[in-house]
Design a protein that fits this description.
Layout lengths: L2 E6 L5 H19 L3 E5 L4 H7 L5 H9 L2 E4 L6 H11 L4 E7 L11 E7 L9 E4 L2 E4 L5 H17 L3 E6 L7 H12 L4 E6 H10 L6 E4 L1 H15 L6 E5 L4 E5 L16 H13 L3 H16 L13 H10 L2
Parallel strand pairs: 1-2, 1-3, 3-12, 5-10, 8-9, 8-10
Antiparallel strand pairs: 4-5, 4-11, 6-7, 11-12
Bound molecules: 3-isopropylmalic acid (IPM) and manganese (II) ion.
EC number: 1.1.1.85
Enzyme class: oxidoreductase
Keywords: Manganese, Metal-binding, NAD, Oxidoreductase
Length: 325
């Protein structure tokens, strides 16, 4: 039985970086004998303009029947599409590894993995405006915290057995306090420390190597992972995996970058490394390793886009990495 992969190219630089990544995915699948059934569907601003809805029913149907979703960045309608997919399939853990790469100017050395809660917090979209007052609900549940903490535990067990819980329980005593307490309980037996999110932002710049696995709530994770990606060398290199119990979605951390769309200069590496995470998730760690190695070879050989000091186009980088597998 083939793995059913639904590809959503997205907006802005999305189609370019996804096309580059598809070269790599197809080359890796052919070489390593992974049976993939790839379908491509529209969602995002493109779909909104064409059909009046960011997530057309046909795309949703394909997503329902897919084993895994591979998605480019989305523009104005990013929340509608991305959150819908995360919530609908309960992709409750957002895994964001952050690591320096060869041939990329290092801001600071860093090697950690963020485990970001992915379906709760203020991202549930419960916002209200009553006259002169606007309110958003921050939702944290025990169930939601336990299951994402268990993912952090799994990563910690594969790494240094060390987890930092990031929260703001000095202000959000009840809500963030609950997240911290449930997480602490779930992580018993590991080396666990905790940090307020503001201090964590500072430490990620000052001494990033002190972090190994970082477990945090949705919004703090959203913000800190952009920061951490830039510390590692650039947002164009940062992959992510949205993981649930039966389904997953892989996508770059960055956005649609309309300012550089269509120019062929977007860095496809974040998307290509997200593809590596996808192979890992379907049980093909060997293929993931081969892709990561091919990415390193391209960087070592200076086949790179301008954001990291190269002169190559998006597709050239994608094709080179595909050929280096
Ligand atoms: C991300 C993105 C999304 C988020 C947006 C597009 C909804 O910024 O994946 O980090 O905030 O989660
Ligand atoms: Mn984000």
């Amino acid at each position: 039985m083939p793995y059913k992969v639904l590809v959503i190219p997205g907006d802005g630089i999305g189609p370019e970086v996804v096309e580059a990544a598809l070269h790599v995915i197809n080359a890796a699948a052919a070489k390593y004998g992974v049976d993939l059934e790839i379908k491509i569907a529209e969602a995002g601003d493109v779909a909104l303009r064409k059909y009046g809805v960011a997530m057309p029913p046909e795309t949703l149907k394909l997503a329902d029947s897919a084993d895994v979703i591979f998605k480019g960045p989305i523009g104005e309608s990013a929340y509608d599409v991305t959150s819908l997919i995360r919530m609908r399939y309960v992709l409750y853990a957002n895994i964001r590894p952050v690591k320096n790469l060869p041939g990329v100017p290092v801001v600071k050395e860093i090697d950690c993995v963020f485990v970001r809660e992915n379906v709760e917090d203020v991202y549930v979209g419960a916002e209200y405006k009553i006259g002169d007052v606007a309110i958003a609900l921050k939702v944290i549940t025990g169930v939601g915290t336990r299951r994402v903490a268990r993912v952090a535990r799994r990563y910690a067990e594969m790494r240094k057995r060390k987890v930092t819980i990031v929260h703001k329980a000095n202000v959000l005593r009840v809500v963030d306090g609950f997240f911290r307490d449930v997480a602490l309980e779930e992580l018993r037996g590991l080396e666990v420390d905790q940090m307020y999110v503001d201090a964590a932002a500072m430490e990620l710049v000052r001494n990033p190597l002190r972090f190994d696995v970082v477990l945090t709530t949705n919004q703090y994770g959203d913000i800190l992972t952009d920061l951490a990606a830039q510390v590692a060398g650039g947002i164009g290199l940062a992959p992510s995996g949205n993981i649930g119990d039966t389904k997953a979605m892989f996508e770059p951390v960055h956005g649609a970058a309309f300012d550089i769309a269509g120019k062929g200069i977007a860095n496809p590496i974040a998307t290509i490394l997200s593809a590596a995470m996808m192979f890992e998730w379907i049980g093909r760690g060997d293929v993931a390793q081969a892709i990561r190695r091919a990415v390193e070879i391209s960087l070592e050989k200076n086949i790179k886009t301008p954001d990291i000091g190269g002169r190559n186009t998006t597709i050239e980088v994608g094709k080179f990495i595909a050929s280096a597998i």
